[in-house]
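Lecture 7 notes. Example A: sequence first, then its structure tokens.
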Amino acid sequence: MLTKEKIAEIVENIEYVNQRKKKKKKWMDYQTICSNSHTMYKGQRDIYERLNLIYKEDLQGKSIIDFGCNIGMNCQIAIELGAIKATGVDVYLHLIEIASKLNTLYGNDCSFIQADLAKPVELEKADTGFVFALNAHVNNDEMLAQNIKNNIKDVVYFETHTNKKFRKLPPKVEEIFKTVKLIGKTHKEQRNLYRCIL
């Protein structure tokens, strides 16, 4: 069961790791831990900012995959908004471990997998995919495109990065989509969020 006390135990672990591994701090406290629009632990990003832009029909009754899931909050909130199951993927094992611990509190049908998206990844295909600000972190656009095609069936929500070099869809990724539609801007209007049809 999700309580502030149980969240606090996990947050203490996050803060402990932040102190010991300062260079990983920005990854550890990036996502806000929340439930039903209530903030349990304030991170750098408001999870609802992006997810409230996603079309309801792409969440409700759908399976979700989140590439670059961090501590898994996009998966948890996608379930809250009607998804039936979610899979989070991140390259960092410590983030996957925290996501898994949080999921024991949420009790949702979420799984978390460590994988490097710059290499081939084969998972059960999901209906809808999240690829949020990941193009600045995966240094292989061709493999990222391949992993999107191999693991997502219908629609991808692709958010660009604040770094000016990564504010557009990578051409290798864009070419796999039938249609691409800008549906909004996030993170102080610095990131574009696209709905892309496979």
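Example B, a different protein, same format:
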Amino acid sequence: MSAFIVSERTMQRVVTAMRREEGAWEDACQLGRDLYAMNHRAIEARYGEPQYVPPFEWTVQMLPDEGDRKRWCELLKALDCLLYQCSEGDVPKEALYKQLEACRNKLRAEIVHGLPEYDKAPWDGEPPAHTKRVCGLLDKGKKASAIAEHNAHVEAEFQRAKAGEVINLSDLIAASEQLHLADDE
């Protein structure tokens, strides 16, 4: 992929994301100019010739509402874009590049941690959802229901696999192990 000087729209988003961290909007114009200068140094390191750097004037950008994932992702994508464009020469060693990277990493973590899928994902040794259901039925003394639930789940996963989908074998194995342990009791 080729490197380039980012658009003003991308730079406005980057400055918005970075100023949000510090809450210091009064130096937003200078930050944008410094980021463009860094972008220029990276492009010059890559291609060996100066590039046109547009003048930067800060336009007040409203931060997205907390639940507006699309707009937060646009800010994140702008950070990723500028980081990529600035990854040439010695630029990644610069303090401003590291600030940009830290801002991107923090925003990325905030977005991911705000996803319902993240909340539903297992933590360490927490059993998968199907295994929890089977164990719950076994705990209630409903072994026949647990076996029926497991068999239905295995069949559904088999059909998904036949259709070319990726399935979670660890969930099936964990539930099977619980059923076998119940047989031993």
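Note on Example B: The two ends are 61 Å apart (CA to CA). The mean pLDDT is 85.
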